[in-house]
Amino acid sequence: MAQFRMNRRTLIRGAGSIAIALPWLEAMGPSRYARAAGTAGKRFVSVFQPGGTVIDKWRPTGTETAPVLSPILAPLEPVKGKVLIVDGLQMQSAVGEQHQSGMIAFLSGTVQAGGGTGYSQGPSIDQVLAGRLSVGKKLQSLQVAVRWATGKSHGNLSPINAVYFESASPYSPIPPRLDPQTIWSDLFGTLGTTPTTGGAAGVDPVAARRKSILDFVDKKYVALSARLGASDKQKLDQHLTKIRELEQSITVTTTTTATCKAPTKVDTTGYNPTSGLKSADDGSLVDNSTDAAIPKVGQFMMDMIVMALACDMTGVASLQWSDSEAKHTFPWLNLMNHHHYYQHDGGFQPTQCQQIDTWYSQQHLYLIQQMAAVDMGGHSLLDESVVFFGSEISEPPTHKKLNMPFMLAGGAGGLRTGRWVSYPNSPSHNGLLVSVLNLFGDTRTSFGTAQYTNGPLANIV
């Protein structure tokens, strides 16, 4: 029997030009990349910033319980009591291409598949936690990114920019959402309203239209599934699950309360969320308008994450400030070359990297303070959450992954903050992933590639 082949664009046209992308299937041709000591956490947030850090300007001084913040971490002084600085870990599972392997291992703890050309070989912790924290909610998880897929990935999903991976095999990568205006409309556009125009009372005609489109696509892809091989069928079934989650996000309603209210909508005119589609491998094509809007868009994204959690739309949210190339400029810092240029493309420039890293600390401060300001009934949103901050490398000029710059914030699961914990002998960061899972009542002792896990880290709770 002849092998079934298909054309991705033809299928999309056959779906009536509905912009719901399929995952890559083998039938389309060869792929380019062949124990909690307190109340268990209720919300998990991950924050990825690219390019590691300038370690001697990042590492605190002082003692474990009385840390003196470094120049890079100094902006966090107002919330020092709410963070745990984790020092001395090695990302041992980052085996593969220099940046890509770190992107993949960051939340999954797995070795890059395909000998340095593929994705993860297991789930990321955010998706594992989504199965525990987001049952019955509007969204399983919310992933957003600012200035994503720059440089060599040209606006497309690739191991250079993938951080989140499905909870079930084949652990497909999950792209983040990029358009802040669409995210706001989808999450908060009908918050607190009961539309009656254009349909039956209490029925939102826009939501009804979206649901009908998803129903159509779902049926079409189910028919396609019967014609695919086992591997492609598994991928498509996982994709169909995501479509059904989209349908649930449309039908689950959220009501405005004193805690849950739409964040202020921000004018992002001039910001192109798909600017990466026009990027150059070396970062030579600069989108000045989009780059200049990064601080404004970033805060808007954080505001939406905070309120999505406060409104109980999801239990898991993630923010990527960029991809591992970060080939965008920083005009508000008067840095007109891209981040990768200052890391190593133009020779390591620690002063400029320190400026960038310090700015990221200012953004981390904003997120932590916004979460701490939300009253969830006698405690804050931050108190019932864990926020995990990290990167894909530690040392920009060498791509080394020793002394990874990790930080936790929040109060869930007995997490003990206000400290700087330094680990001798460079234990694997997989232990930190296990510890984070434990903070949410997941009692496992291993996660990711088995040879790099020796149980949870000591001294987290």
Percentage of residues assigned to helices: 25-40%
Q: Which residues sit in consecutive blocks of at least 5 with pLDDT less than 50?
A: 6-37, 194-203
Shape descriptor reads globular
Mean pLDDT: 87
Largest sheet: 7 strands, mixed
Mind telling me which CATH architecture this is?
A: 3-Layer(aba) Sandwich
Order of helices and strands: HEHEEEHHEEEHHHHHEHHEEEH
Name of the top-level CATH class: Alpha Beta
Strand order of the largest sheet: 5-8-1-9-10-4-11
Description of the molecule:
It is built from 12 helices and 11 strands. The chain has one domain (32-192, 254-452): 3-Layer(aba) Sandwich (Alkaline Phosphatase, subunit A), CATH 3.40.720.10. The protein is an alpha/beta fold and 461 residues long. The longest helix is centred in the C-terminal third of the chain and has 23 residues, at 350-372. Helix content is 31%, strand content 9%. Residues 6-37 and 194-203 have low confidence and may be disordered.
Summary, kept brief:
Helices cover 31% and strands 9% of the residues.
